[in-house]
């Protein structure tokens, strides 16, 4: 789902040519771009591709600003700078974004669970942080 989104935004003039770009129907990009939020996994895809915080910031942008920022991201995804995105480059990007999200999430949860701030989480701390209001 993410690759078609990239292909729709990039032909708007900012970006990288793609192998599938030439095969798109005239006007299809604009038509699909207007309705891309209709899919059931849109928010999940947005977060997987951009990261949770970045996805939130994109939600506040105008379509023009969003296209510009996405074009810059596409430049970063194109590892070999050949002007094309491969499936492997896209997979690597998503893995990198997800790994960053995991590390950030672990750091936040660690702070919440390490109640005595000794940089260790004891079973009692875990129980208190997880079930404290039930006990």
From TrEMBL:
- All copies of domain EF-hand, residue ranges: 65-100
User: What is stated as this protein's family in its record?
Assistant: Belongs to the CREC family.
Signal peptide bounds: 1-15
> Which SUPFAM superfamilies is this protein grouped with?
EF-hand
Record's subcellular location: Endoplasmic reticulum
Name of the protein in its database record: RCN1 protein
Per UniProt, the keywords (alphabetical) are: Calcium, Endoplasmic reticulum, Metal-binding, Repeat, Signal
Name one matching Pfam family.
Answer: EF-hand_7
């Amino acid at each position: 789902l993410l690759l078609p989104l990239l292909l729709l935004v990039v032909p708007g003039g900012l970006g990288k040519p793609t192998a599938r770009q030439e095969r798109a129907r005239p006007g299809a990009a604009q038509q699909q771009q207007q309705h891309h939020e209709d899919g059931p996994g849109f928010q999940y895809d947005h977060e997987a591709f951009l990261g949770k915080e970045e996805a939130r910031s994109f939600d506040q942008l105008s379509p023009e600003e969003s296209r510009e920022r996405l074009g810059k991201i596409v430049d970063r995804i194109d590892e070999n700078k050949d002007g094309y995105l491969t499936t492997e480059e896209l997979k690597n990007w998503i893995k990198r974004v997800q790994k960053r999200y995991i590390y950030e999430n672990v750091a936040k949860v660690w702070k919440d669970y390490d109640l005595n701030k000794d940089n260790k989480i004891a079973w009692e701390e875990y129980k208190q942080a997880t079930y404290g209001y039930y006990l």
